[in-house]
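Q: Could you fold this chain for me?
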Amino acid sequence: MGGSFSSATLDDATVAMIKHKTRMKSSEVTEWFNELKSRCPNGKMTKKDMLKCYRDLSTCDMDKLEHVVNAIYKTFDTDNDGKVDFKEFVIGFLLTTKGTMEEKLDYTFQIYDIDKDGYIDQSEIDVMAKYVLRMLGGNGNEFESIELLKHFISSCHCNEQGLITKENFIRALSKNELLSQLLSPFT
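A: Sure. Below is the predicted structure, expressed as structure tokens.
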């Protein structure tokens, strides 16, 4: 939707929206569009394409990203059409690589909020634990990781239903660099 790579040109509304969200110049948006169009001429970015772009264009921890690529892909697909288009990728990529800590943690929250209800519940916490263990590669730190995750959950001040809000998630990770590095592929 709006901004397919295969389009001959970018419309002004897409350029303006990307500029606003990412603080890019119009010329930079055009450069990104042309680069991504050359990589994905059909306009559909696959998970493999997305990983390759991260590998080539960022300093993110690729080991972590590879373990959560499915969740990242779903998070970037903001219109839920099963594809990541130019606008979705550029905004997601730039905010997760060059954005503020809060923007990066916002995307991290979206990865773990699987049902997109604005909260992280117990089943999503279980998935979070699995992601963390996969990101660590089963290197013997599993017990320590689970303990850190339990500490994180207790520091999030869950609401009365035991749900973690985005605000509490971001606040808790902002205060703990180790947890932020453990739970976010972007920090």
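A (continued): Residues 116 and 127 are 14 Å apart (CA to CA).
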